[in-house]
């Protein structure tokens, strides 16, 4: 997902959720971002700050990166993203659409394309703190 | 106060932006069928090309296993990155497909991966102002249909069948499913008609949009959009489009 599109999703979701919970002021947002999203943190943080200004929010944003874990559904092997051998162009495609990894990669042990993403995908708000 | 830790529930940040991406799209029309090989992609691409002569149109290919719209419209440009992905304009219509991320390789996606890929595409694609967003759906009633029902509640379904009993029996199941889920069914297009039409059978239960005769020359026009529009198939599609695909002034 692109950094700006992602940041927009985060801020909109946080605003919606805060409203739903009757929260008047958002003070802190915790985010969990999958390693597979391959986010440029400088751009992402800049986009978040710009969007927070637009929405009139001044919140601290804590970001943790979840390491990617894959599991082969044929041989059971488990591995991480860095174990895939792929070029920059393929990495860029995965950055935009993480599921494209199923087109570009295989299990490093048995060569199967039948594997699953166990962890490390997506952009999640894990917590929002603020005043009610 | 920490509300979410208490609930042990995380929020997918992509969901809230989907509506925003589609807010300036007047009509969303999913071209579907219970059966493969009935000409969905030809119908979806041709409808899009016809509409693009008069309206602002987007074409989204959601057939991840067998994307083919890009071949029909000869998509030779790539999306541009600007606060998301701006779909390239091809023959007057904005186009997005999984092929921009998988190239010509197979994409063996499983259930939840399909949903994730759709959500991601909907979240990152900046369509802008559109009169119509046409969606080329895969055959059947898998995750893609569920995703449309969940994330594009106002989508209208155009269902394609052929006169073959094998196609119609399967297509009927999709139609019943759509009806059960209170989806808006715009109508049925009967494609590849040779001699026998099943118009009367279809009309008993569903709105019939029109029939398209089997065009033996159609293969020649794949990848040649202007010739496709001039073909017999294109002309017959034009009649259906001018009658059923309108935008209220």
Description:
The complex is a heterodimer of chains A (132) and B (249). Chain A has helices at residues 3-20, 41-55, 88-96, 101-104, and strands at 25-34, 60-66, 69-72, 78-79, 115-119, 123-131. With 132 residues, chain A is α+β, with helices and mostly antiparallel strands. In chain A, α1 crosses α2. The longest helix of chain A has 18 residues, at 3-20. Chain A is elongated and about 55 Å long. Chain B is of the alpha/beta class and 249 residues long. Helix content of chain B is 39%, strand content 22%. Chain B is built from eleven helices and eleven strands. In chain B, α2 packs across α6 (111-124) and α6 crosses α7. The model of chain B is unreliable at 1-7 (pLDDT under 50). The A-B interface holds A 1-2, 4-6, 8-10, 12-13, 16-17, 21, 23, 31-32, 93-94, 96-100, 102-104, 113-114, 116-117, 121-132 and B 1-5, 10-17, 20, 81, 83-85, 98, 100-103, 105-110, 113-114, 116-117, 120-121, 123-124, 126. β6 of chain A pairs antiparallel with β1 of chain B.
């Amino acid at each position: 997902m692109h950094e700006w599109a992602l940041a927009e999703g985060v801020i909109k979701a946080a605003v919606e959720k805060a409203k739903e919970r009757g929260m008047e002021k958002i003070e802190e947002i915790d985010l969990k971002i999958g390693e597979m999203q391959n986010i440029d943190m400088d751009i992402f943080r800049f986009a978040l700050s710009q969007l927070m200004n637009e929405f009139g929010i001044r919140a601290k944003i804590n970001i943790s990166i979840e390491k990617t874990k894959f599991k082969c559904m044929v041989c059971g092997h488990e591995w991480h993203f860095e174990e895939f051998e792929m070029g920059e162009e393929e990495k860029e495609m995965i950055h935009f659409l993480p599921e494209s990894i199923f087109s570009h990669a295989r299990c490093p042990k048995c060569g199967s394309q039948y594997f699953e993403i166990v962890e490390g995908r997506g952009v999640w708000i894990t917590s929002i703190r603020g005043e009610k | 106060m920490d509300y979410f830790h208490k609930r042990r529930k995380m929020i997918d940040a992509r969901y809230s932006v989907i509506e925003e991406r589609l807010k300036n799209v007047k009509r969303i029309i999913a071209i579907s069928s219970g059966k493969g090989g009935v000409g969905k992609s030809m119908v979806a691409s041709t409808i899009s090309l016809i509409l693009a002569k008069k309206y602002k149109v987007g074409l989204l290919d959601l057939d991840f296993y067998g994307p083919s719209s890009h071949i029909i419209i000869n998509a030779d440009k790539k999306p541009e990155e600007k606060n998301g992905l701006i779909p390239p304009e091809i023959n007057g219509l904005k186009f997005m497909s999984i092929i921009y991320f998988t190239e010509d390789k197979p994409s063996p996606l499983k259930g939840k991966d399909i949903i994730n890929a759709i959500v991601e595409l909907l979240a990152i694609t900046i369509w802008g102002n559109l009169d119509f967003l046409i969606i080329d759906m895969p055959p059947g009633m898998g995750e893609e249909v569920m995703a449309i029902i969940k994330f594009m509640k106002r989508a209208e379904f155009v269902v394609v069948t052929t006169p073959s009993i094998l196609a119609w029996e399967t297509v009927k199941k999709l139609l019943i499913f759509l009806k059960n889920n209170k989806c808006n069914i715009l109508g049925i297009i009967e494609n590849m008609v040779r001699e026998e039409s099943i118009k009367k059978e279809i009309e008993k239960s569903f709105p019939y949009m029109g029939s398209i005769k089997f065009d033996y020359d159609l293969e020649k026009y794949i990848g040649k959009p202007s010739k496709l529009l001039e073909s017999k198939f294109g002309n017959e599609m034009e009649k259906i489009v001018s009658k059923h695909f309108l935008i209220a002034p």
